[in-house]
Design a protein that fits this description.
Radius of gyration: 16 Å
Number of strands: 8
CATH topology of the largest domain: ATP Synthase, domain 1
Distance between the termini: 28 Å
Order of helices and strands: EEEEEEEEHH
Number of domains: 2
Oligomer: single chain
CATH architecture of the largest domain: Sandwich
Shape: globular
CATH class of the largest domain: Mainly Beta
Strand content: 35-45%
Helix content: 25-40%
């Protein structure tokens, strides 16, 4: 079976680089499934889960926006920020979620609503991926 090379890069580091079977990315207009020999494309990404399958393994990363380039044998994700599921601190993500929700409830003039909503989306994505990993380990 053919594979494709996946590189997930943030400003700080290479988060993931390996040959994989399929990539499912949070595209701006919905989920994108990418298999080897996919038609080339370039798109923006939204905050969400980047799902990767390699053989019988399936794992997730959190992407907080960025760009995705697809070539017939390669996928490059230039992420604003990215974390592997095992790097996610659930307690920190829950705290960030609570802070963002409190800011949105208050809506005082000094609260940047767009920034609070973005923080809430990021924390929810981290919690989703972190909880998913926790459930997999438990089973």
């Amino acid at each position: 079976m053919s594979t494709l090379k996946l590189d997930v890069v943030s400003a700080e580091r290479v988060v993931y680089s390996d040959d994989v079977d399929i990539v499912i990315a949070p595209g701006i207009e919905g989920q994108l499934g990418i298999l080897p020999h996919h038609t080339p494309l370039m798109t923006t990404l939204q905050v969400g889960e980047l799902l990767v399958r390699k053989g019988a393994q399936e794992f997730s990363l959190v992407i907080t926006g960025g760009f995705l380039e697809v070539r017939p044998d390669r996928v490059i994700v230039l992420a604003d920020a990215a974390e592997r599921a095992e790097e996610i601190d659930i307690t920190r993500a829950e705290d960030a979620k609570r802070r963002a929700e409190e800011q949105l409830k208050r809506r005082t003039p000094e609260v940047d609503v767009a920034q609070a909503e973005a923080a809430l989306r990021r924390s929810l994505a981290r919690l989703k991926v972190g909880e998913k990993r926790r459930r997999r380990r438990g089973s």
